[in-house]
Specification:
Blueprint lengths: L12 H23 L5 H13 L7 E4 L2 E4 L13 H6 L4 H13 L1 H12 L2 H13 L1 H7 L5 H18 L2 H12 L6 H13 L4 H26 L12 H7 L9 H12 L3 H4 L10 H9 L18 H18 L7 H20 L26 H13 L6 E3 L13 E3 L10 H5 L5 E5 L12 H9 L3 E7 L2 E6 L24 E3 L2 E10 L5 E9 L12
Parallel strand pairs: 3-4, 3-5
Antiparallel strand pairs: 1-2, 5-7, 6-7, 8-9, 9-10
Helix pairs in contact: 1-4, 1-6, 4-8, 5-6, 5-8, 5-16, 6-17, 8-9, 10-11, 16-17
């Protein structure tokens, strides 16, 4: 590690221009997912509700499948408390998305500084900053809702920059902030300590770093988590059983060995040309990265777009810088140009891999409207119905009341004590929806459920709500349904089915395969609203799958 150069290390227009472009892109893409109802209650919604709960005097409490639970009983994200003042000013999940994107973008500053200090080349520092900003798993982590791993990524880089400058007070601050993002950040922090002790020439600092990381990790995992767990907590909140949740079926790893290997190649591959020469810096991240690649948890967790790989990025950057420094030193006489070529090729590979595998504007598929990608409404696209949904929720759902909602609607209802989702993937209840109904006063269901799945995703729960005697349907618009507990009779919308004689209908107007459109009637209502009536006749046997007529 070398002393800093005398000139101001970040007074570089290209650095700030790259940060402006990439930071703006990541921020707008994150917000576009929210605007289009493509961010879910799981992750972003839960984190937002937990942070807002602090304003009500609760310790990061959100609604889990069985009821209220503190984030301090899960991943112990003390760092979330720093978002409370911002959420107090604007109680909206967009605050978290903006903050995460900007903080991640800021990680280019320490990456640039370290490279400039170690390589004494602005061109090299710019390439390193570009590699960081466009690294595939960095961008996918930022675009994957909101997580402590992603927040810790730039904080670790700031800590490494401070260590490189021997600014130990700053180093301690950044390490403390990184540890507060998630309990298992203690693993790579301990790895940093090991590096400083073994190869960094800072045995005392390295030893203290390892001691602090191990002590903190043990304290929060074995002390804080059980303290905030509740009686109904599942195995993911009870001590070592956390491990069984993610590795309970590890024997299945061999069945998916090839996919895991390919995902590992995406995670490590773009910088391997240089990073393998700085292999020592990869060691601090290997325990967590290996754990992710071997996990049998839901997701699948090992997918390269998982936010867990964010903690690897700082060490890939350090390994790349180390690799360039080694190449520059050893080839100084025989091939003085070699390091520049390899660094340029590495930057190009990062750009190309990101353009192919990350859902962002450099990817040609971003502009093609492919379902689930780019401008399609399952990814970043926003439809007129999204605007209708926003107005429906604002107008009909009262504030503060306990609700259960479709998973892509619940994120807009987080500023309250209780927000259940209709179908919870972690639920241990045999009938989740029926079990949690006594805890809520309102049900909000997206009957068309136009989010990445079949429209009958919540069909059984919708049928249950329609028959449940304590709830009445009080509002309906464009497939959005609101049920109220003990609703006044006059407020309940009538549910009727009228059978008509086919002999009274005209000849078929339109034949659509096994369905015939026999009649259409459109009546104007108040303002710009219309009521449409369609009469269909089944021509032949019923279809194998449910149909929806729009």
């Amino acid at each position: 590690m070398q002393p800093p150069p005398p000139h101001h290390s970040t007074r570089d227009l290209w650095l700030w221009l790259m940060m402006l472009v990439v930071g703006t892109m990541l921020t707008l893409l994150s917000l576009a997912r929210y605007w289009g109802y493509n961010t879910l209650m799981l992750d972003l919604g839960n984190m937002s509700q937990a942070i807002l709960s602090v304003l009500r005097g609760e310790p990061l409490v959100f609604t889990y499948y069985h009821g209220p639970l503190s984030r301090l009983a899960l991943h112990v994200e003390f760092f979330y408390f720093l978002f409370v003042p911002l959420m107090a000013l604007w109680p909206n999940p967009q605050v978290l998305l903006i903050g995460q994107a900007l903080l991640a973008t800021a990680g280019a500053i320490p990456a640039y500084r370290i490279a400039l200090r170690q390589l004494d080349s602005r061109m090299a520092a710019r390439c390193i900053a570009l590699i960081y900003l466009l690294y595939p798993v960095m961008q996918t982590a930022v675009l994957f809702d909101f997580h402590g791993d992603t927040l810790a990524m730039p904080l670790l880089l700031f800590a490494l920059d401070a260590a490189d400058r021997k600014a130990w007070r700053s180093y301690a601050l950044w390490i403390g902030l990184a540890l507060s993002c998630k309990f298992y950040v203690a693993v790579p922090v301990a790895g940093i300590g090991a590096y400083l002790w073994l190869w960094g020439g800072q045995r005392r600092v390295g030893a203290w770093t390892m001691v602090v990381a191990v002590a903190y990790g043990a304290f929060v995992f074995l002390g804080v988590r059980p303290l905030f767990a509740v009686a109904s907590s599942t195995t993911t909140q009870t001590g070592m059983d956390y491990i069984s949740f993610y590795y309970g079926e590890i024997f299945l790893v061999t069945e998916s060995f090839i996919p895991r290997l390919l995902h590992a190649l995406v995670v490590f591959g773009p910088t391997l040309l240089l990073a393998w020469r700085g292999w020592r810096w990869l060691l601090p991240a290997m325990p967590l990265t290996s754990a992710v690649l071997l996990s049998s948890g839901p997701g699948p967790v090992y997918h390269y777009a998982s936010h867990h790989y964010a903690l690897l990025v700082p060490f890939l950057i350090m390994a790349t810088i180390d690799g360039v420094a080694w190449l520059r030193k050893t080839k100084e006489v025989s091939q003085p140009w070699r390091w520049k070529v390899d660094l340029g090729v590495t930057a190009l590979v990062v750009v190309l891999v990101g353009a192919l595998l990350v859902d962002q504007p450099l990817n040609p598929r971003f502009w093609q409207g492919i379902p689930g990608q780019g401008l399609h409404h399952w990814s970043y696209g926003v439809t007129p119905r999204d605007g209708v949904t926003t107005r429906f929720l604002e107008h009909y759902v009262p504030p503060d009341v306990p609700v259960v909602a479709s998973v892509n609607l619940a994120t807009r209802l987080i500023n309250r004590d209780t927000v259940h989702i209709v179908i919870h993937p972690d639920s241990k209840y045999e009938d989740h929806f029926a079990t949690i109904l006594p805890q809520v006063d309102y049900i909000v269901i997206n009957a068309l459920f136009d989010w990445r799945t079949v429209v009958n995703y919540e069909q059984a729960e919708l049928a249950y709500a329609l028959k449940y005697p304590e709830f009445g349907l009080v509002a309906a618009r464009d497939g959005l349904l609101l049920f109220e507990r003990d609703a006044p009779t006059e407020a309940v919308l009538p549910q009727t089915v009228t059978l008509v004689s086919m002999s009274d209908l005209p000849d078929p107007e339109l034949a659509l395969g096994p369905a015939l459109l026999r009649g259409v009637e459109v009546l104007p209502l108040e303002g710009r609203r219309f009521q449409a009536r369609f009469v269909w006749q089944l021509n032949g046997p019923p279809p194998e799958h449910d149909w929806v007529a729009i």
